[in-house]
Amino acid sequence: MSVAEPMPAEIRPPGASDGGGEPTSVLLPGHDVPLGRYTTVRRMLPHRRRRMVGAWCFVDHFGPDDVADRPGMQVPPHPHTGLQTVTWLVAGEIRHRDSLGNDQLIRPGELNLMTSGRGIAHSEQSPPAHPAMMHGLQLWIALPDGTRHGDPDFSHHADLPTLRVGDLDLTVLVGALAGARSPASVHSPLLGVQALLPAGARGTLPLDPGYEHGVLVMSGRAEVAGAPLAPGALLYLAPGPVELPLAAAEPTRLVLLGGAPFDEPLVMWWNFVGRSHEEIVAARADWAAGRRFGPVAGDPAQRLPAPAMPTTRIRARDRHGQTYG
Predict the structure, then answer these.
(1) pTM (2 decimals)?
(2) Quick check: is 175 in a domain?
(3) Is 194:217 a contact under the CB 8 Å cutoff?
(4) For 34, phi and psi rounded to 5 degrees?
(5) Quick one: which of 31, 78, 120, 181 has the most CB atoms within 10 Å?
(6) 177-186 average pLDDT score
(7) Does residue 63 sit within a domain?
(8) CATH number, domain at 97?
């Protein structure tokens, strides 16, 4: 998974400015990126201007795709540093295997959380006999400086808390909402919630005013904080609001992401999240030499080779896209 592709510009919904230079809401159109040989994802973060929502630094939406006569997702062993990966399926199956020895089949309604720490390798592959449809999200969480060099870890959560707020059926993926808390362990103040809205639904979700938020629609169409939202874009909301009004004229599945603003500038290149060009060079060299990350147990596929380093120095960027170093 690479983050080196060109990123589109932002679009401000009408009336989205607070009167100063900083918009209160921004519509971020996604762009298509190949993932492995058989899957294309719509990437919504990182974006040219809004690189993060809290510590959420990478948002991919894939499907719904008919994979009845195709291999489905086939991503061979590859490395990660400095992040957590979150995989959430609403259709299909993906087999996760990693260098810690974990071998886990992910099914709809179950959450995979992998913590890379200083380094881990894993693969993501649809089983040979898999469901006809595949649909889900892959997300990255940037680890703060105090934990990013720690031990790698993996957890699988098949029983996430659910609740109903008005017309909305909610599943808490990460963090807590309205007294329901996910068992997924993260290292920054974060929120991830799936909301199912039947046709004609209206409702309001409570928000932490200290968080920034992002909303994406996986299927259907919704009106979010007065802005129309369809699959393929992420609506960014700046800190401040205490509630989020939602409405849908048709059955809709959406995901709310949130978190305290993450103020550490990051270097994101290929599958690595670091703080400097030198860290990325070292991680790439270790992967190429077979150091640090270890083999993915039980996966016979050839490891994914790292792309060539760019000819210019990779500079750290903050959540707004400003460069450092």
Answers:
(1) 0.93
(2) yes
(3) no
(4) -70, 140
(5) 120
(6) 97
(7) yes
(8) 2.60.120.10
Residue range of the domain that includes 41: 25-259
- Residue that the structure tokens 């603003």 belong to: 261
Which residue do the tokens 């894993």 mark? 122
Per DSSP, what are the bridge partners of residue 139?
59, 86
On whether the CB atoms of residues 316 and 323 are closer than 8 A, the answer is yes
Determine the Cα–Cα distance for residues 289 and 305; give it in Å rounded to an integer.
Answer: 11
CA pair distance 114, 106, nearest whole angstrom: 12
Indicate if the pLDDT at residue 306 is higher than 50.
Answer: yes
* Residue 248: strand pairing partners: 201
Report the percentage of the chain scoring pLDDT > 70.
93
Buried b (16+ CB within 10 A) or exposed e, 15-24: ebeeeeeebb
Q: Decide: 166 and 204 in contact? Cβ < 8 Å.
A: yes
Is 162 inside a domain boundary? yes
pLDDT at residue 16, rounded to an integer:
46
| Total domains in the fold of the chain | 1
HEC string for the chain? CCCCCCCCCCECCCCCECCCCCECEEEEECEEEEECCCEEEEEEECCCCCCCECCEEEEEEEEEEECCCCCCCEEEEEEEECEEEEEEEEECCEEEEECCCCEEEECCCCEEEEECCCCEEEEEECCCCCCCEEEEEEEEEECCCCCCCCCCEEEEECCCCEEEECCEEEEEEECEECCEECCCCCCCCEEEEEEEECCCEEEEEECCCCCEEEEEEEECCEEECCEEECCCEEEEECCCCCEEEEEECCCEEEEEEEECCCCCCEEEECCEEECCHHHHHHHHHHHHHCCCCCCCCCCCCCCCCCCCCCCCCCCEECCCCCEEC
Contact 84, 116 (CB under 8 A): yes
Q: Tell me, yes or no, whether 164 lies in a domain.
A: yes
Q: Over the stretch 76-119, which tens digit does the pLDDT of each residue have?
A: 999 999 999 999 999 999 999 999 999 999 999 999 999 999 99
Cα Rg, the chain, nearest whole Å: 19
Q: Which two tokens stand for residue 38?
A: 């058989």
310 Cβ contact list (under 8 Å, min separation 6): 4, 269
